[in-house]
Automatic annotation (TrEMBL):
Domain DUF1659: 3-70
Name the record gives this protein: DUF1659 domain-containing protein
InterPro entries from the UniProt entry: DUF1659
Organism: Neobacillus notoginsengisoli
Domain of life: Bacteria
Amino acid sequence: MAQALLAESRLRLSFETGVDEKGKPVYKSKTFNNLKKEATPDQMHQAASAIAALCKDPLSTVERTDRSEILG
């Protein structure tokens, strides 16, 4: 039976930096690699909130991206 082993996790924060000429929001993101694989959603939210407090632009979204290796 195949197994999936979590190989890598990333945390991506998106910030709303303004609006374009058509009035649509413009976003910029920052990705943090090597997130601890054991990190809970609460811990990630706390980290994102702490980082956002240091930024001038408002935090829009927080995403976690995982990459797994499939072993058979």
